[in-house]
From TrEMBL:
Its cofactor is Mn(2+); Mg(2+). This is CoA pyrophosphatase. InterPro entries: CoAse, NUDIX_hydrolase-like_dom_sf, NUDIX_hydrolase_dom. Transmembrane segments: none annotated. Keywords: Hydrolase, Magnesium, Manganese, Metal-binding. Residues 23-157 form the Nudix hydrolase domain. Coiled coil: none annotated. GO terms for molecular function: coenzyme A diphosphatase activity; metal ion binding. It holds the Pfam family NUDIX. It comes from the Bacteria.
Amino acid sequence: MFLDKLKGQLSKHQGLFIGEDTAFRSAVLIPLVQVEGEWHILFEVRALKMRKQPGDISFPGGRIDATDVSPLAAALRETSEELKIDEKTIQVIGQLSPYIASPSFVIYPFVGVIEGDQFLRDYSKDEVEELFTVPVKWLLNHEPYLHHVNITPEPSPDFPFDKIMNGTEYQWRARSMEEWFFEYGQYTIWGLTARILKHFITILKKGDFLDLGDSVCS
């Protein structure tokens, strides 16, 4: 009886990883737009007056609210708010694997086409300082450069060393975090945005996709 009940419980939908249900969850859109018949990716420069990461380059997106029915719904809502566009003008192409920045922070990236260019002239100045685009062809031929950030665990002052083997001599495992940098003119794309972008470009390089000059409807 116990094993049958356990089997049924384990067969139910579970999160992607332990802790997903309590993690800070965010969703972003990688926006594809056409500029003079060529595919570009749209980026935001975060408003300089924002409390967190002012001036950083990012994709449209943000925190998944309790009212969002899914990560995709959050990505579309945030994109609509930041670019002042109707969600119906966004053609969702697909999604990437979630990016687990840490056990307490996960990002769900989606890919979509934004029709028109009205957003280039009228966007939320409270959240966006400016917008710019980068040609996909340029990204396919550009090699970002890599730096590492070494992270060493630092236990809290009240950590119970007496409860673990070797106590204060315990050998904590340090780790190295990759930081990728894309340099495009005056813009430097790095951090979480660069990691997601690099993954997306790697998918394009591996796959067989339509000519970048094709129409939006292709």
